[in-house]
Amino acid sequence: MMINFAALEVGKHFYWHIGKLEVHGQVLIVTWIVMAVLVILSSLATRSLQRVPGGLQNFMEYALEFVQDVAKTAIGEREYRPWLPFVGTFFLFILVSNWLGALIPWKLIVLPEGELAAPTSDINTTVALALLVSGLYFWAGISKKGLGYFAKYVQPTPILLPINILEDFTKPLSLSFRLFGNILADELVVGVLVFLVPVFVPLPMMALGLFAGSIQALIFATLAATYIGEALEGHGEEEHGH
Amino acid sequence: MNPTVAAASVIAASLAVGLASLGPGLGQGNAASRAVEGIARQPEADGKIRGTLLLSLAFMEALTIYGLVVALVLLFANPFAG
User: ipTM greater than 0.90, yes or no?
Assistant: First the structure.
């Protein structure tokens, strides 16, 4: 029996009905796998901590330092610490989901409808992530400056008010579409190439997909940190002179 | 699907990707050429320049991707299919 390697299924989903809700089951399955991979890796790495790290602990410390660096450059030395877990979770979750989506031959697992793929190639996942970022930078600004946070909307001149408000809508829009489009585009390109020539030819594209997946994870984390940093700094702080 | 709508959607999808890749293509070429220039002048700043270049290339790439998302919506989730 021939396995159909090259079926392109966009817009078909494996629906689960939970109460009145319809959810995309194939996305949830892979999301849980991603979370399981992250949790198992971190618990394995921190099970027996050594003074001189080796192996997995060393690797995880490298990942932590990398994320720390991202958060530090975007938010600033003084305030990055409370936001580090959030930015780091974003980076690791998106990275692992992009890579698992590209590395594991999901097509071998046949679902009744739809197919397993990277969770980030579903718009609902990326919109949820982007809205989390939106909510969080509002919370960051308001918890730091109270209602004074909203003064930034009229900050240079009140004429810019509509543009400043519009920005709050374009931020999650561009965040979610960038991630979704890149990952889906990679999967589609690989899918089309596999459809045309099933062996060897798609390999460079797959490698490019892995690279793009890690860059997109880095960009999402950097932008999330930058937005939070923007909300924390704002114009209010310049008066103190630092 | 109405054949006129189908034909228009296919043309619109191809135009969306094609036109959306014009600007970012120019921008990416510009950025890459300046980065090469920078590396030629200061080979020791190689790593930093490459990092910044990759990040900004990805931002430009995102603009094309927006066009691609529009094209994908037209092809696979057409709101006018009716």
Answer: no
